[in-house]
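Translate sequence into structure tokens.
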Amino acid sequence: MFRIITKTSRLFPLKGIPSAVSASLKASSAKYPIQSIPFSCIVPQQSYFRSFSSSYTSLNSQAMEQPSTSDQIVLFSEYEPIPFSSYSSVNPNTLKAIKSEFKFDCATKVQNAIISQIPSDQDFLIKAKTGTGKTIGFLISAIETLLKNKKSGSYDKDSVGILIVSPTRELAKQIANEASKLSTFHKFGVHELVGGESIRNQTRSLSNRPKDIVVGTPGRLLDLWDSFPEFGRAASKTQILVFDEADMLLDLGFQKEINDIVSRCPRDRQNFLVSATFSSKVRQTARKALEGKSFKELDCVDPNESSVVKKIKQSYILANWDAHYHLISKVVASHIAEIKEKTGAGAKILIFLPTTKSVQVYSSVLSSMLSKSGTPLNKPDKSSRFRNHRAQYKNSVKIFSIHGKKSQDVRTRTSDNFRKFDISNNNTGILITTDVSARGVDYPGTSLVLQVGVPKDPQQYTHRVGRTGRAGTYGEGITILSEFELPFIRSLSLEQGVELKESEVFNSSMVSDLVEAIELTKKEADTESGETKDSTTDQSLEAKNELIPFVKKHSFGFERYKNEASVEEIEDMFISCIGYYQSLEGILRYKVNDLISQVSRSMLPFGIDKIPHLPLQLRLSLGIGRPSGNSKSFSRNNYSRNNSSTRYKDDSRFNDHRHGSENHSSSQPRFNGYRHGSENHSSSQPRFNRYGSKNNRESSDNYFQKNRSSGNRDRRNGNSYSR
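Result follows.
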């Protein structure tokens, strides 16, 4: 199919206009012969499409809307896989690495589109989706330019060859890993400069090894640029500058850093801007980075090709927050059984949560409910010198977790362990994470993406779901929604063209049965412990509800965590989620009372039915005042926009509304009091100064009652539970 893109971005079929097209082709490139009758373009077999030269010659506001001053032709044709060995323009050592390190035989469409431009010193603006092999594509092209520069007599050995700027640490590590493999036989020095890791180790590496390829996040790159003169001098001579996931860099607020990096690099460098979208922000950044130079725009997204995400089986489950833990357990168990039946192996599952606090709680709960070591396949060999110390298992389930509060070293190790997790012998790995794993990071073999709550926007939904179903493998996406999140479905349909339907398996009837099973199981447990006066569980209902045995089985794990958890961490999770959803008011159009009422149900399984104080800034952003009446805490649905005289605690402990916050250490107590487990703490005194001044504090007897099995004191329905 042929299409022509004009200055106004309108699409026209090329019918009977050979003269206009010939003129455009002649102006752009004389490389391809044209047959005028009938009109056709003879494209070399290796070319999936060609995107002809366009240029930014103006930096005014009109240029912001019109990215090029000449017509651009993009040709799409049926793609036939091209063997890497057929690219004569690619260095043999690079081809050798592709074969030995990556085990790749043929190039993807996107890789072919980029590689077929080699050799070229031009700048490139590349539009490509995640999971299409674009990283390998631009790395091959950049390495070829670097090799050519090294052969020239003017090459400066003290310069940075390729500088790649990544929006996240995880993506930077992945790019650095691929760059190291690709340059194995070139003996290039590859450096990874990201935050959260030792600057001393990074500077030592920069001093001892060539600076051929440097991959980093904006903040750490600029830090070293200023604090380590050797790197600053080398980076100021960068030969090839790459911005990967440029749209994400801008979404995360790195515009100033991008401009700073561009201004510090030499003007005669080669540029690559790689992005999943060509938004106005991306084009504005391109104009700044390319500084009016001619460039090639490669649109690697075929408009006629169905989105990879659309091919993934997707659905949503409508459920209240208090049913999440058992519901997630049931979804995971069902998926494991389905994958085992299809493949005879275990599953890899990604679970996304909105905030760091929610990841901390959910990972602990689900680890207690789902983790199992499985059945040993062998015994550790302790008899020989080179013995196997570790037994192998089958039918095991292992929980991993990643969030912004973990150190970079721990996040990297966890990510690598999950990526390499062996699902043979029906072993299952589950990674519970925030959006640090949502984009650019590849976890091969992931068969299910489960989202608890909606992402920040429809585009982020696509990036999350895109972690599964990659390279033509099976994938499924399930999103658990509460009622106030339902408007997101319409936004997803309008912006991404994804029609999300209710799950056929986990429909409203099934969720209702699960909730009933949870209530019956709790009722039976309370009866056995003598805490209620009710008789035994209704046997007829139990016989009808086949989910009761499942709930009973997993309730032991939940109770185990519940007895160890503190009220503070559960309340913090609730507050962080309210802060997260506050930023989504424009999409969800919720009522504040509905938001707080529904999210507060997340605390009910832990026996907390009083809504904690919200920080002042969060209350103001929600448009609500102080709690009504003389109560010292919020009761459910008693929010008011009227102010009251209630004194509030310091809000500084609530800095972690967003998963990316680095201000609060979860290992520190939230109030001015004793550290958890302090030897100086008297068990007869409340652990924390919860309610500020003495005059504003209710009697501790109303909030702290001695637990019959532990000295720990927490407020849960007026009772105390062990931590």
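Note: The first helix runs from residue 18 to 28.
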